[in-house]
């Protein structure tokens, strides 16, 4: 169903999809690695209150195709801290068994 919807909607303007980054191979990889229950939980949360929940999702996703798993990554630079909406997404992920980490980036000393 997701693949059919992808083909149907490909290229249409959406605030949730950057079509330049989502090709069929990447979609297939995501569907291979992300359990349907996790997709359902995230989409349900988003749709329950788009205005409140569209911000704060982790920045990156890392796929482990050989293991059929993934993790989400929130990146924080020097002096940056987790915002309340990000903390809510991290809590949500923990409640639903979604692997998520916070990566604190430091600049190398010259």
Short structural description:
The chain is an alpha+beta fold and 110 residues long. Helix content is 43%, strand content 16%. It has helices spanning 2-9, 24-33, 36-48, 50-53, 84-95; strands at residues 60-64, 69-76, 100-104.
How would you describe this structure to a colleague?
43% of the residues lie in helices and 16% in strands. It has 110 residues and is α+β, with helices and mostly antiparallel strands. It has a three-stranded mixed beta sheet with strand order 1-2-3, covered by helices on one side. Helix 5 links the parallel strand 2 and strand 3 (100-104). The longest helix has 13 residues, at 36-48. The radius of gyration is 15 Å and the shape is globular. The chain starts with a helix and ends in a 6-residue tail after the last strand.
* SS elements, strand count: 3
What is the C-alpha radius of gyration, as a whole number of Å? 15 Å
Helix content: 40-55%
Annotation field: number of helices: 5
Main sheet?
A: 3 strands, mixed
Proportion of residues in β-strands = 15-25%
The geometry reads as: globular
Along the chain, the helix and strand elements come as HHHHEEHE
Structural class: alpha+beta
Write the layout of secondary structure elements.
Layout: H1 2-9, H2 24-33, H3 36-48, H4 50-53, E1 60-64, E2 69-76, H5 84-95, E3 100-104
Parallel strand pairs: 2-3
Antiparallel strand pairs: 1-2
């Amino acid at each position: 169903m997701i693949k059919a919807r992808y083909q149907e909607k490909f290229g249409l303007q959406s605030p949730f999809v950057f079509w330049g980054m989502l090709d069929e191979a990447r979609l297939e990889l995501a569907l291979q690695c992300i359990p349907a229950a996790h997709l359902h939980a995230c989409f349900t949360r988003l749709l329950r209150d788009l205005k409140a929940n569209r911000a704060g999702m982790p920045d990156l996703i890392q796929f482990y195709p050989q293991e059929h798993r993934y993790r989400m990554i929130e990146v924080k630079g020097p002096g940056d801290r987790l915002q309340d909406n990000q903390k809510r997404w991290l809590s949500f992920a923990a409640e639903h068994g979604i692997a998520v980490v916070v990566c604190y980036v430091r600049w190398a000393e010259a």
